[in-house]
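stuck on this one:
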Amino acid sequence: MTIKDLCSCFFHSCRFTVNLQCGAYEGSDIALHFDVRISAGSDRNVVVRNTCQNGAWGAEDRVLPYFPFMPNSSFDMIVLVEQNQFKVTIKHYYRFVCMYVLHHQTI
């Protein structure tokens, strides 16, 4: 899946979220929660990755060797769904690997 021309800062908010949800209704499991926080409360230059299953959030992964987002810049986001993980590519070169918590056939 490719999401094109995202902007990393929308008006007064410097945060955005991409959720890959396992259903169309509120409360569906979230297989991949990708939350970019350029400036949100006390968080600066953080990308939170996790899942939500049966209403419970999993452990957050915040470890990053490099923060690929800049305020007011656009970029493409590519999400590759593999057998046991997601690979998220930003700007055609930076890759996050997110392991599945949910079974891949439910996504």
Observations:
- The chain has one domain: 2-106.
- The radius of gyration is 14 Å.
